[in-house]
Amino acid sequence: MAQQTRGLCKYCGKEYTRGGMLRHLAACKERKAALEKEDGKRKCGYFELVLCGKYDSAYWLIIEVSDTATLSDLDQFIRDIWVECCGHLSAFEINGEEYEAMSDVDCLWGRPSKSMEYKLKDVLAVGMRIGYEYDFGSTTELVIKVQDYRTGVCQQDEVTILSRNNPLEFVCSVCGKNKAKWILPERYYEGDVFRCEECLKTDSEPDAESGDFEDEDFENYYLPVCNSPRMGVCGYEGSECFPDCFEPDKVQK
Ligand SMILES: [Zn+2]
Ligand SMILES: [Zn+2]
Ligand SMILES: [Zn+2]
């Protein structure tokens, strides 16, 4: 179900939907002031990218990436914040061409591919829409839009997060009132995937009378609810590098 999520602006902390944020970032006074304040002689180019879950656009990221970063650097960032579970393969699709981390696996997939060692400035242009896939089995697909480009003082970080959707909230499917902390992927088709802390405990305790575990419950494996389009897939347990909740430089009072 499409859900319009909101996020906070890195520079001023104001809250907007994704579309509103894109318009806001182009005009944010605090951003302008922060960029003008930067000093340093070396100038660099930056792409503004919008990343979305292909099938769930409630998950989005707006980032700025140095144009000398490689696709491999971008891949690493996506893995760190959104998708890495057990070192699966990944690929970008740009203008009908595949760019893969390990291009020697070409023949396996029966399609020619390039490596990810290309610099962004050699493969991207404003207005492009590119694809990204992580894990060719239980695939997480993203759509990346090249929103804008600017030149400015070189920054230390290759990737800067400008905004990100606030974490989605899910209600426990058992009690119907507590906030869900866990997801049971096996229950996906039964429609009761979410569990709060308490209901999960009841789920995995032995039956009070017989002392037996209810087989069905015991076999369920569960994963944490997290702010990612890969939530509940394979063994994805959330990011180890980034908090679920984006922390802007300035907090609105
Ligand atoms: Zn702002
Ligand atoms: Zn995995
Ligand atoms: Zn509950």
Write the layout of secondary structure elements.
Layout: E1 6-8, E2 15-17, H1 18-27, H2 29-37, E3 43-53, E4 60-66, H3 71-83, E5 90-94, E6 97-100, H4 106-109, E7 113-115, H5 120-123, E8 129-134, E9 140-153, E10 159-164, E11 182-183, E12 194-195, H6 197-203, H7 215-219, E13 223-224
Parallel strand pairs: 6-7
Antiparallel strand pairs: 1-2, 3-4, 3-9, 4-10, 5-6, 5-8, 8-9, 11-12, 11-13
Bound molecules: zinc ion (3 copies).
One zinc ion (ZN) is lined by residues 9, 11-12, 14, 24, 28, 30-31.
Give an overview in words.
This protein is an alpha+beta fold and 253 residues long. The chain has two domains: 6-22 and 39-164, Structural Genomics Hypothetical 15.5 Kd Protein In mrcA-pckA Intergenic Region, Chain A (Roll); 182-224, no CATH class. The chain is built from seven helices and 13 strands. The protein has helices at 18-27, 29-37, 71-83, 106-109, 120-123, 197-203, 215-219; strands spanning 6-8, 15-17, 43-53, 60-66, 90-94, 97-100, 113-115, 129-134, 140-153, 159-164, 182-183, 194-195, 223-224. The strands form three sheets. An eight-stranded mixed sheet has the order 7-6-5-8-9-3-4-10, sandwiched between helices. The protein is globular. The mean pLDDT is 90. It binds zinc ion (3 copies). One zinc ion (ZN) binds at residues 9, 11-12, 14, 24, 28, 30-31.
Structural class: alpha+beta
The radius of gyration over CA amounts to: 21 Å
Spans of 5+ residues with little confidence (pLDDT < 50)? Answer: none
Number of strands: 13
